[in-house]
Design a protein that fits this description.
- This protein is of the alpha/beta class.
- The chain folds into 2 domains: 56 residues, Orthogonal Bundle (DNA polymerase, domain 1); 281 residues, Aldolase class I (TIM Barrel, Alpha-Beta Barrel), CATH 3.20.20.70.
- It is 35% helix and 18% strand.
- It is built from 13 helices and 12 strands.
- It has a 10-stranded mixed β-sheet with strand order 1-2-3-4-7-8-9-10-11-12, covered by helices on one side.
- Strand 10, helix 11 and strand 11 form a beta-alpha-beta unit.
- Helix 6 runs parallel beside helix 7, helix 8 runs parallel beside helix 10 and helix 11 packs parallel to helix 12.
- The longest helix is centred in the middle third of the chain and has 16 residues.
- It is elongated.
- The structure holds S-adenosyl-L-homocysteine.
- The site of S-adenosyl-L-homocysteine (SAH) has 18 residues, from strand 8 and strand 10.
- Belongs to the radical SAM superfamily. RlmN family.
- It is found in: Cytoplasm.
- Keywords: 4Fe-4S, Cytoplasm, Disulfide bond, Iron, Iron-sulfur, Metal-binding, Methyltransferase, rRNA processing, S-adenosyl-L-methionine, Transferase, tRNA processing.
- InterPro entries: Aldolase_TIM (IPR013785), Methyltransferase_A (IPR040072), RNA_MTrfase_RlmN (IPR027492), rRNA_lsu_MTrfase_RlmN/Cfr (IPR004383), rSAM (IPR007197), rSAM_sf (IPR058240).
- One of its GO terms (molecular function) is rRNA (adenine(2503)-C2-)-methyltransferase activity.
Length: 373
């Protein structure tokens, strides 16, 4: 295991940068206590601060009346520093889709999207400012990687969404975040440690964390095979989504350049391993691009590639209508081709869904807002 997972990873960020402010969401409960003591403050206050942050979703120090007034500012500065400021919020779907553009402490821009449905509310979060994976159809991929986000910067996007739901700011009455998908900017498995930390904070019971179910969390990856193998061993049953987009190496090398390092076969094997170890059904993401990857023969090949690893329901396919990025040569598939693609996958026994396209008009997908700033 360690031999495979300790490969030098070309996508790690440069060293020696100024780090984001340290926040209680970066730390586990014992570390929070230690941090306060290091600052000469009483350690037991860490639990109260955690309750404000994760339990009550309070961000205004004036509401933290159980903290002594004379120490409140110091406590808040120590464990709840400001991590990001909202620059813009765009709404669609009558206010049930809300996309926020955030400015981080160093000026880096990231975005998150809240999507509320009748039965659930999903936060789509960023894990990196920019992305180093360079997929040519993805807006974020065009700008390169600026930096990894910290655990707290990732978590704060979810907490901000939870606050607006709790405060009834989203149509449908007060609510909670039920799902988190790592499908905003960045490649989550290229920022592995911070992402695992964020998953732990999301799933730790309140007030240590947000108390979400791991099943409600989806980590989406281009297919960093060593990290996929490592994730399977973490003991946190998150849902894994693999952005495959092509069933053959020739095309996938172009659409998802990391494929030149990890082939389709190795990548699908790692997804299959994840399903086998965690008993969680893996999701294969496939952005449908007209005349590029939407041929009937590719549907058959995709069906075979998945089917030959097992027919015990380990996988399903999620087709994503391509959201064309400005100036790109690719467009979404013809609906008839999309239907035929679904039919052929289902004929091979692969459950297939077509993703609904919330927030199209606010560039809900794929880094377009941040890219336009
Ligand atoms: N880096 C991760 C997660 C971020 S992208 C990954 O690649 O999985 C989330 C999903 O959106 C991925 O499946 C990605 O391929 C897809 N995507 C990116 N650009 C898109 C576009 N223009 N239209 C449709 N889907 C896109």
């Amino acid at each position: 295991m360690s031999e495979r997972t300790n490969l030098p990873l070309v996508f790690d960020e440069p060293r020696g940068r100024k780090k984001p402010p340290q926040h209680l969401a970066d730390l586990d409960p014992a570390e929070r206590k230690a941090r306060l003591e290091e600052l000469g403050l009483p350690g037991f206050r860490a639990k109260q601060l955690s309750t404000h942050y994760f339990g009550r979703l309070v961000d205004d120090p004036a509401e933290m009346t159980d903290l002594p007034a004379g120490q409140r500012d110091e406590l808040v500065a120590g464990l709840l520093p400001e991590l990001m400021t909202p620059l813009r919020t765009l709404e669609a779907d009558r206010g049930t889709t809300r996309k926020t553009l955030w400015k981080l402490f160093d000026g880096a821009l990231v975005e998150s999207v809240l999507m509320r449905y009748p039965d659930r509310a999903t936060m789509c979060v960023s894990s990196q400012a920019g992305c180093g994976m360079a997929c040519p159809f993805c807006a974020t991929g065009q700008g390169g990687l600026q930096r990894n986000m910290s655990t707290a910067e990732i978590v704060e996007q979810v907490v901000a969404g939870a606050r607006s739901l709790a405060r009834g700011e989203v149509p449908g009455g007060p609510g909670r975040v039920s799902n988190v998908v790592f499908m905003g900017m960045g490649e989550p498995l290229a920022n592995y440690k911070a992402v695992i930390g964020a998953v732990r904070r999301l799933t730790d019971p309140t007030p240590d964390g947000l108390g979400m179910s791991a099943r409600g969390v989806t980590v989406s990856t281009v297919g960093l095979v060593p990290r996929m193998l490592q994730l399977a061993e973490e003991g946190i049953p998150v849902t894994l989504a693999l952005s495959l987009h092509a069933p053959d190496d020739e095309l996938r090398n172009e659409l998802v350049p990391i494929n030149t390092r990890f082939s389709v076969a190795e990548t699908v094997d790692a997804a299959w391993n994840y399903a086998k170890v965690t008993k969680r059904r893996v999701s294969i993401e496939y952005a449908m691009m007209r005349g590029i990857n939407d041929h009937a023969w590719r549907a058959d090949l995709l069906g075979d590639v998945l089917r030959e690893r097992g027919d015990w329901g380990w996988v399903h396919v999620n087709l994503i209508p391509l959201n064309p990025t400005p100036g790109s040569k690719w467009t979404a598939s013809d609906p008839a081709d999309e239907r035929e693609f679904v039919r052929r996958l289902e004929a091979k026994g692969i459950p297939t869904t077509v993703r609904d396209t919330r927030g199209r008009e606010i560039d809900g997908a794929c880094g377009q807002l941040a890219a336009s700033e």
